Amino acid sequence: MTDVLRRGRASLAFSFFAQGATFALLVTRIPAIQDRYGVSDALLPAFLAAVPILAGVGSVTTEQLVKRIRPSRLLRWSQPVVLLALLGVGSGDRLVELAVALGAFGLAVGALDASMNMLGVSLQRTYGRSIMLGFHATYSLGGIVGASLAWVGAHWHLSLFVSYLPVVLVLLPAAFVGSRWYVDGDAASGLEADAGKGQGESGALVFRLLLPLCLVMTFAYIGDSTVSNWSAKYLQDVLGSSEQLATVPYNVYMVMTLVGRAVGDFGVRRFGAVAVVRLGAVVAALGFAVVAVAPGAWVGMLGFTLLGLGLCVLVPQTFAAAGRLFPGASDAAIARLNIFNYVGFLIGSPLVGALGDAWNYRGAMLVPMVLVLATLGYARSFAPEPDRYGDGHERPRTADVGRGSNGL
User: Fold this and answer.
1) Cβ(362)–Cβ(253) below 8 Å
2) What is the rounded CA–CA span in Å between residue 236 and residue 143?
3) I want to staple 121 with a disulfide (CB 3.0 to 4.6 A). Which of 157, 297, 313, 323 is the partner?
4) Where are the alpha helices (DSSP H) in 28-131?
5) How far apart are CA 75 and CA 181, in angstroms?
6) Coil, helix or strand at residue 190
C-alpha cells in the first residue's frame, strides 16, 4: 500500500508540474499569439477573459461528473486535452482556430485544475499529514521551466508551433503513462465508508460554510494576477527601472512561491494551517505595502519577493481546508471552490488597471493589500474540524487509524 501511495503521489506531482509548464507557455507568449493571429488590442481582453470563464464552466461540469466518474479518470483525459489545445494555439493562423483552441484549453483546464486538487486533497487525507503545498510547489517549478522555455523561444525567434511541439511531445506521453498510477485517496486506503458519506453535516455541501474559503481563494488570486499582469509595468513606469530589469519581478515571485511551498508543508505540520495562513497573509500584505511605497526598483523587487513568499501558501491550504470541512463531499467542495480561482483572476487585473488609470498605481497596490489582510478574519476556517465527542480534542481521522502519527 505504501508503494501505491508513493507512486500515486509522484504521478500527481508530475501532473501539477506539467500543468504549470503548460500554463506558463501559454500566458508568457501572449504577445506572440496576438501577432500570429492579428488579434487587435481591443479584442485581446475578450480572448483572455474567455479562458478563465470557460475554465469556470469546466470546473462546474467536473463537480457533476465526479458523482459518476472518479477524479483520477477525469484527470487522465483532461491533461492530454490541455496539452493538445496548447499545440493547437501554436499551429493555427485564423481567429476562429484560435477561438476553438482557447475554448478547448479553458474547458479542459477547469476540469484539470479541479480533478488535480481533488486527488491532492484525498491523498493528503490518506497520508494523514500536510502534502498539498508540495504538489503546488511542483506547479511553481513547472511554471518556472515553462516561462524559461518561452523566453528561449522568444529569444531565438522560434514560431509558436516550434516552441510548443517539443514540450508537448515530452509531456503528453509522460503524463499519459504516469496516469496509470493515479490513486483516489479513499480507494488507496480502503475508506469506502468515508468516501460514501452523503448525509449529515460533513457529507452535505453547505455553501454558507464554504463561502469564507471562496473569498480567501478570490483574494489570493486577485493578488496573484496583480503580480503577473502589472509587476513589469509597475517597475518600469512607476519605479523607473529599465525594460530588462522590469522582467525580473515575476521570475523572482515565481521562485519564491516555489521556495515557500517547498517548505510550507513542514510549517503546517509543526505550527498548524491557521498559523501558516495568517503568516502568509501578513507577509503578502507587507509585500504589497513595500511595493506601494518603494522609492526605487530594488526596493520594489523586495516587495515582490515578499509577495511570492506570502501568497504561495494561501491557495493550497484553501483547497486542503475545503477537504477537511466537507470530508464526505470534498470533491464537490473543491470543484465549487476552484471556480473562485478564475473569479479572482478575472477581477484582479482589470481592478488594478482601472484604479491605476483613475488614481495612481501606487494607490492601486493598496487594494489587494487590504483584501489579502481580510484573509486574517477567515483564518479560523482553516482549523481542523473540532471533535464531536466533547473532549476538546481534534476528531480522529479514519485514515489515521492503525497508523502512526507521522503517516507514511
Assistant:
1) no
2) 23
3) 323
4) 30-37, 44-65, 71-91, 95-127
5) 12
6) coil
- At residue 391, the pLDDT reads 34
Q: What does the pLDDT read at residue 356?
A: 87
Read off the C-alpha cell for 72: 483520477
State how far the Cα of 286 lies from the Cα of 309, in Å rounded to an integer: 11
CA 91 to chain centre: 27
b/e sequence 79-115, b meaning 16+ C-beta within 10 Å: bbbbbebbbbbbebeeeeebeebbbbbbbbbbbbbbb
CA distance 60 to 187: 24
Whole-angstrom distance, CA of residue 381 vs CA of residue 281: 14
Q: Which of 163, 141, 144, 161 is nearest to 152 (CA)?
A: 163
- Under 8 Å between Cβ of 312 and 136: yes
C-alpha cell at position 270: 509543526
Side chain identity at residue 195, one-letter code: A
- The Cα-based distances of 237 to 220, 245, 362 in angstroms read 25, 12, 11
The per-residue b/e assignment along 167-185, b for 16 or more CB within 10 angstroms, e otherwise, is bbeebbeebeebbebbbbb
DSSP calls for 114-171: HHHHHHHHHHHHHHTS--HHHHHHHHHHHHHHHHHHHHHHHHTT--HHHHHHHHHHHH
10-residue stretch averages of pLDDT, the chain, 408 residues long: 88 96 89 89 84 94 93 96 96 94 96 96 91 95 91 88 96 95 64 36 69 96 90 88 80 92 95 96 97 95 95 96 89 94 90 87 94 95 60 37 32
Cα 158 to Cα 194: distance, rounded to the nearest angstrom: 51
Q: Tell me the whole-structure pTM to 2 decimals.
A: 0.86
Strand partners, 182: none
Of the candidates 266, 360, 316, 25, the one whose C-alpha atom is nearest the C-alpha of residue 168 is 25
